Amino acid sequence: MITQVILNAVVQTAIYMIMALGLTLIFGVMKIPNLTHGAMYAMGAFIHYSLIEWFDVPFVPALFIAAPLTFGGGAILERVFFRSSGSGANPVVAIIAGIGLTYVLVNVITNVWGAWPMRIQTPFGHVLRIGSGAISSHNVVTTGVAISIAALLYALLKWTKFGCAIRAVSQDREEASLIGVNVNTVGLVTFAVGTMLASIGGMFAAPITAASPTMGGTAETMGFAIIILGGMGSLGGAIVGAFLLGFVDVFVTSYVSGGWGGAVAFVFMIVVILIRPSGLFGKKGRQI
Amino acid sequence: MDSMLDLLKKKSTYIFLAATIFVVVVPHFSSPYVLRLMITMASGIIAAMCLNVVLGYMGYPSLCQNVFFGVGAYTMALATLRLGVSPWTALALSPLVTFVIGYLAAIPFLKLRSMFFAIGTLAFTGVVSAILMNLPKITGANAGLRGIPRLVKSDINFFYLEIALILVILVLTVLMSRSFWGKILIAIREDEDLAPHFGINTTRYKRMTFAATSALTGMAGAIFFSYQTYISSNYFTIGSSFTALAIAVVGGGGTALGPIFGGLVVVGAPEVFRGMTEGMTLWRPSFVGAVLVLVILLSPGGVVGLYQKLASYFRKGGAN
């Protein structure tokens, strides 16, 4: 039993991690909670689904077509609704705009694809046995993707000029703009990348949990809990937070009862912020 | 005497009179459906007015307003159904219970600021929603609890009850905003780190404000679910708290009357699209979302802000 539970927890962590990395990236640069994240998580899953079902694109190439599409979607959202120099300047306005957009996006998904959960066939159907536990190769791939995304993001932020610009903007927007960083472009790309990550999370979660228009709601809230726990805007915090909450969620679900997993994970987060209001890896100064 | 004459000259006096007549007369001539809508709207407005104090005056965007609405409602339901208390006693109990829960919630969450507070309280809503869903023996979970006794017999009286509560909160908000307390809240909103240097115990004021507004929201919850006679955990899902925030912000944060206009827009907008053809009905949530996005993007100050903008625009036009 314990091996199986650990394997499940690892996969859950992987999905949460993809979700939370996007959120924390957007929060770090734009200082707004992106409430369209959950809707775009579902949108990614459904775009991917239609490429497979309607256009007969195989699973993996469909990923590479759907991801850029959601990147474009994220770019449009940022440009029209969330630009920091415009309506994104006020976080409360961004929250309300996010709620309104979520209504629209979820409604569009429901009307185009239907309200019923859909299962997406994955080509990675093979089941691997590890000790007394079993894990499908889809779950192995999902975990691998999550780790590669984290590594890629780290490399992007650490070693590229653009990553340096992202870090500069997230530290101090005005000073970054003074030294010649185009803060609008940085915001646009960050938001688009974050949205794309949410959608990729949805694409990999859909074969596991089935895709429904409202699938993003819980995932989004869990994503927020993770980045608060880890410290908002911190990539390492998002990874550690995803691990902690993923494991708490799956262990409680397995050993106590299905419904309590999320609740206990939230309580865990609340306890941590009671002790450290800025989260595990958040700097004091990040408390805006 | 002078003040009386001033009152007669003021435009707001007439608006207030018109509103009073509307509120007293209209329910008698409206269909049960419209009355139900008005009662729902009124309870949303109460929740938003309470949130407005926390958000607009104190600067904390709370996303757990619906939790307190629910705590008050479940106090009403459980006290009457399980303990056999009379509904009016339960109505008196509900703000007390909600006050305590609100105060306890304030201790951890008010340590967070701004967006952290928003997301923290969102997670709190998630916890409460899970508790309601996972304790079917006590809360009835999805299936819910039926047969909550009604406070008053007719629906119209429920509406008046809510209007009375709205007036009480309106008066309290205006009194508060003019008092020392209100000034402290604004000081907290403008610069929370500076306020303690003037000898203000910000923590105490923040917690008391949060708990007091929670208590009034709880009372609204008790009234609404006593009207409805049925409660289930489906009313308190994680996204449910967005409504109160939407009403408060769309109306115009930090203004006493804002939530009333916000309620008309946010709760009223879905109804405008109800009479549409079948094909259009499918897209109703999209219209509602679009209205929300448009109002907030066109005027971050909400409906009240939009009115002020337009008024000053026309005033300028007149001067030219």
Furnish the topology, listing elements before pairings.
The complex is a heterodimer of chains A (288) and B (320).
Chain A: H1 2-30, H2 37-55, H3 59-82, H4 91-113, E1 127-130, E2 133-136, H5 137-159, H6 161-171, H7 173-178, H8 183-209, H9 215-230, H10 235-255, H11 260-275
Antiparallel strand pairs in A: 1-2
Helix pairs in contact in A: 1-5, 1-8, 1-9, 1-10, 2-3, 2-4, 2-8, 2-9, 3-8, 5-6, 5-8, 6-8, 9-10, 9-11, 10-11
Chain B: H1 2-9, H2 11-29, H3 32-57, H4 65-81, H5 87-109, H6 114-134, H7 136-139, E1 145-146, H8 155-178, H9 180-190, H10 202-228, E2 230-231, H11 242-251, H12 258-272, H13 278-281, H14 284-298, H15 302-319
Antiparallel strand pairs in B: 1-2
Helix pairs in contact in B: 2-8, 3-8, 3-10, 3-11, 3-12, 4-5, 4-10, 5-10, 8-9, 8-10, 11-12, 11-15, 12-14
Molecular structure report:
Chain A has 288 residues and is an all-alpha fold. Chain A has helices at residues 2-30, 37-55, 59-82, 91-113, 137-159, 161-171, 173-178, 183-209, 215-230, 235-255, 260-275; strands at residues 127-130, 133-136. In chain A, strands 1-2 form a two-stranded antiparallel ribbon. In chain A, helix 2 (37-55) crosses helix 9, helix 6 packs across helix 8 (183-209) and helix 9 (215-230) packs across helix 10. Chain A is globular. Chain B is mainly alpha-helical and 320 residues long. Chain B folds into 2 domains: 1-29; 31-239, no CATH class. Chain B contains 15 helices and 2 strands. The mean pLDDT of chain B is 83. The A-B interface holds A 27, 31-33, 81, 87, 90-93, 95-97, 99-104, 106-108, 111, 217-218, 221, 224-225, 228, 232, 257, 259-260, 262-263, 266-267, 269-270, 273-274, 277, 287-288 and B 55, 61, 108-109, 111-116, 118-120, 122-124, 126-127, 130-131, 133-134, 238-239, 242, 245-246, 249-250, 253, 282-286, 288-293, 296-297, 300.
